[in-house]
Amino acid sequence: xxxxxxxxxxxxxxxxxxxxxxxxxxxxxxxxxxxxxxxxxxxxxxxxxxxxxxxxxxxxxxxxxxxxxxxxxxxxxxxxxxxxxxxxxxxxxxxxxxxxxxxxxxxxxxxxxxxxxxxxxxxxxxxxxxxx
Length: 132
Fold this sequence. Notes:
Number of strands: 5
Strand content: 15-25%
Distance between the termini: 10 Å
């Protein structure tokens, strides 16, 4: 039995194929500020899958990275996502096409790194919870 909560993103309404912007707007993908991902060592924009975000934000009522967070909130969000971003760096350096799973010290669940397009067809790192 997995100790992951059974959170799933809401289903998009009115469309069979959601857009990248739509996935961000509904919280299925959570955009990480470029300054945070670059400081961790990643050279592309990063989004976390909604489930990964919610697992990392356990107990913190943040459904996405605010546009203008307070200093304390920004520091706490950065503290929570940085270990994941740093653990993704060696995976990102090895691959640019295939998905690859990785672990983060201190987390009981594994993640998968996917390189895919954003809404402008530019490459972006997408980090999701690995479905065992």
